[in-house]
Amino acid sequence: FLPGVAACFAGIFVGDLLLYLAGRSGGAIGRRLVPEARLKQASEWVQRRGMRIVFLSRFTPGLRLPVYVASGF
């Protein structure tokens, strides 16, 4: 049981980290598509509410990918 739970947690952690890193590596593309002022506004919003956003995105279907990739931007 314990190795199975540990493997699940490791898989979740690595998957979330890869989504964030995909946003980090694609940041140059995102900066060309999104105006600088809007990107700064979104960054400040995420810094203020980051933990709540990440927590809610874990349990809301369809939000995890966009939230983690956008956080990487």
Write the layout of secondary structure elements.
Blueprint: H1 2-25, H2 27-33, H3 36-59, H4 64-72
Helix pairs in contact: 1-4, 3-4
Describe the protein:
The protein is mainly alpha-helical. Helix content is 88%, strand content 0%. The chain has four helices and no strands. It is elongated and about 50 Å long. It starts with a helix and ends with a helix.
Largest sheet: none
Question: Which structural class do you get from the secondary structure elements?
Answer: mainly alpha
Q: What is the helix fraction of residues, given as a range?
A: over 70%
Low-confidence stretches: none
Radius of gyration: 14 Å
**Mean of residue pLDDT values:** 85
Shape: elongated
Number of strands: 0
Number of helix segments? 4
What is the CA–CA distance across the termini?
Answer: 37 Å
Give a quick rundown of the structure.
With 73 residues, the protein is mainly α.
List keywords for this structure.
73 residues
